[in-house]
Design goal:
The complex is a heterodimer of chains A (about 350) and B (about 270). Chain A has about 350 residues and is α+β, with helices and mostly antiparallel strands. Chain A has helices at about 40-50, 90-95, 100, 105-120, 135-150, 165-185, 195-200, 220-225, 230-235; strands at about 5-15, 15-25, 30-35, 55-60, 65, 75-80, 155-160, 185-190, 205-210, 210-215, 240-250, 250-255, 260-265, 275-280, 285-290, 300-310, 315-320, 325-330, 340-345, 350-355. Chain B has one domain (about 55-235, about 245-265): Orthogonal Bundle (MetI-like fold), CATH 1.10.3720.10. Classes of the chains: A alpha+beta (about 350), B mainly alpha (about 270).
């Protein structure tokens, strides 16, 4: 186990930039997720850490060692692939012991380690079976056991749950999180599934077009997205665009088509007066205000319901407000009718100011 | 069902006739009739006893030749397949077509070409391959290598390269990865190609006909000559023995390859 550093890592294929510039410092034992849509550079970044691709520029360090240019087999990295990549001609035991054989671990120690790992992934007794005899979820657990059989300095996971169905994926998420808590292996995880990233990670690096848009804890990525891309990619979100007109009581004042509203200033961002800004508000932070005195110091805006979508425990209600904007409100199912005139309100701290 | 039955009759009838006739003896007052009779009037094993010794020698030579040609075809064809599928060379389709060329040249032409080449070489250098086993082997390697190249290429094209990446990241060098992962997984293609290579070499007449000399006559050529000069059912008897041997070989190969194919299918 070691810390992992990427310093100014760039990957270009001719004129095409796959990874524009990535700086990352992953702490020892940390679980970091590279999250983004396909083509954002997350897999390229992972493959550069593994050593399958050489960066065009920049350095990669594991612990204090500069591994840039070192072939993958000398990096002491574990990796779990999306399609498992278990060796179909070898038994489960031989699959798991693959790295141990390469490192000339004696047979008795190998057998002991295989037993430990099969207990760890709760699949005892499958030593002599072949991968094709196991289910997808079982194969993925074996792939994980194989990756950590010789304790790696860093564990890489490339959409490891992508091929599993939803129920199994959720169960595996919990299992992975529990294993990570137990083993404390420095882990880089790649996914395009924001829910998976949220529930597994210590920190998330949201990537877009070859660069990291925001590197933060899951709660900050969700609650305080710094760019529109991050806000949009992670969960549902409303945007209100406007002009920054000043500050009051620690809140920013923004003139928008729905009137002057107050929003939280992001600690790290600085905006000039009169600059064009966007306020983002999560649907679950918007409410319908039934009586004017309930509004308190909330931002309020009048609108008309245009559609309702019942999702089980909650309703997603679209409300048209001035400025040709529709706000998505998440609330408990109610007896509001379509086309009803309503007032929508939200607390100023729930509006997050982000750069355009 | 009827269609399948007809197909089987069509495919198997010649073999049945050959095998049946090899056991056929006609008693005409002590004179043995040397022609083919089917169905046999009288069952006998005497033709088996009359197989000339020279045919066994030729058979041994053909077996050695076939095995040597198949092994050499693997030694050349496997690297060639890797080059074609993974080399990323400009002009790969052209190279592939050239490597396939021996399959498209009439085998008689291959035989004549090699014969002329060997005579030329003997005239202009000290290398005399005319009528030698080495000369025969070289021509057969030329003839059969495309089968290995083709079948290994086919397997490689479907090969999941993630498996090799997995081996490398687990600490295996490129060579170790080849030995522990790549080679075992392409073995079905190697077996298939090698089997074809052996069979094509073993049954070849046109190429061997021009290159064989006393002492380096292959089995089918020997059979061909014996039927030209003095046809009698001993040739059928010997052919029946070889057919039985081939059948055993095929069943063995099928079990070997069949097992591998089964293992591959699930998890790739």
């Amino acid at each position: 186990m070691s810390e992992l550093k990427l310093e100014g890592v760039v990957k270009r294929y001719g004129q095409v930039v796959a990874v524009e510039r990535v700086d990352l410092h992953i702490h020892e034992g940390e679980f970091l997720t590279l999250l983004g849509p396909s083509g954002c550079g997350k897999t390229t970044t992972l493959r550069m850490i593994a050593g399958f691709i050489d960066p065009t520029e920049g350095r990669i360090l594991i612990g204090a060692e500069d591994v840039t240019g070192l072939p993958p087999q000398k990096r002491d990295i574990g990796m779990v692939f999306q399609d498992y990549a278990l060796f179909p001609h070898l038994t489960i035991a031989d699959n798991i012991a693959f790295s141990l054989v390469e490192r000339r671990v004696p047979t008795a120690d190998r057998r002991k380690r295989i037993g430990e790992l099969l207990d760890l992934i709760r699949l005892p007794g499958v030593e002599e079976r072949y991968p094709s005899e196991l289910s997808g979820g079982q194969q993925q657990r074996v792939a994980l056991a194989r990756a950590i059989a010789h304790p790696p300095r860093v564990l890489l996971m490339d959409e490891p749950l992508g091929a599993l169905d939803l129920k199994l994926r959720e169960a595996m998420q919990e299992e992975l999180r529990a294993l990570q808590d137990k083993l404390q292996i420095t882990t880089v995880y790649v996914t395009h599934d924001q829910g998976e990233a949220m529930s597994l990670s210590d920190r998330i690096a949201v990537m877009n077009a070859g660069r990291i848009e925001q590197l933060d804890t899951p709660s900050n990525i969700y609650g305080a997205p710094r760019t529109e891309f991050v806000a949009n990619f992670v969960g549902k979100i409303n945007f209100l665009r406007g002009t920054l007109s000043g500050q009051q009581d620690g809140f920013a004042l923004i003139d928008t088509p729905v009137g002057r509203i107050r929003a939280r200033m992001a600690a790290s961002a600085s905006f000039g007066s009169d600059s064009r800004v966007t306020v983002s508000i999560r649907p679950e932070n918007l409410r319908v205000i039934h009586r004017a005195e309930d509004a308190g110091d909330m931002n309020t805006v009048a609108g008309r319901i245009v559609s309702r979508l019942f999702t089980g425990n909650l309703s997603h209600v679209r409300v048209a407000v001035p400025g040709e904007v529709e706000l998505l409100v998440e609330m408990r199912p109610s007896d509001l009718s379509d086309a009803a005139e309503v007032t929508i309100g939200w607390r100023p701290e729930h509006g997050v100011l982000i750069t355009n | 069902m009827l269609w399948f039955a007809l197909a089987y009759v069509f495919l198997l009838a010649p073999i049945v006739v050959v095998v049946g006739a090899s056991f056929s003896g006609a008693d005409t007052g002590g004179v043995v009739i040397s022609y083919v009779q089917f169905p046999p009037q009288r069952w006998t094993l005497e033709w088996y006893a009359r197989i000339p010794a020279v045919q066994y020698e030729a058979l041994a030579l053909s077996l050695v030749l076939g095995v040597a040609a198949a092994l050499a075809a693997c030694a050349i064809g496997i690297p060639a397949a890797f080059g074609l599928v993974r080399g990323g060379l400009a002009g790969t389709p052209l190279i592939a077509a050239l490597l396939r060329a021996p399959l498209q040249i009439p085998t008689v032409v291959i035989g004549i070409a090699f014969m002329q080449l060997y005579y030329l070489m003997a005239d202009y250098s000290r290398i005399d391959l005319v009528g030698s086993f080495a000369g025969l082997l070289i021509a057969h390697i030329f003839l059969v290598t495309p089968f290995v190249t083709g079948s290994v290429s086919a397997v490689l094209q479907r090969f999941n390269v993630r498996l090799e990446e997995a081996a490398v990241i687990l600490g295996a060098s490129r060579w170790r990865t080849f030995c522990r992962v790549t080679l075992p997984l392409i073995m079905p293609g190697v077996y298939t190609g090698a089997l074809y290579a052996f069979v094509v070499s073993f049954i070849d007449v046109p190429v061997s006909l021009f290159l064989a000399a006393p002492g380096s006559v292959t089995y089918p050529v020997e059979l061909f000559h014996s039927m030209e000069h003095d046809f009698n059912p001993s040739a059928l008897a010997s052919a029946t023995l070889v057919t039985a041997f081939s059948l055993l070989l095929l069943v063995g190969a099928e079990r070997l390859i069949g097992l591998n194919a089964l293992l591959r299918s699930g998890a790739a």
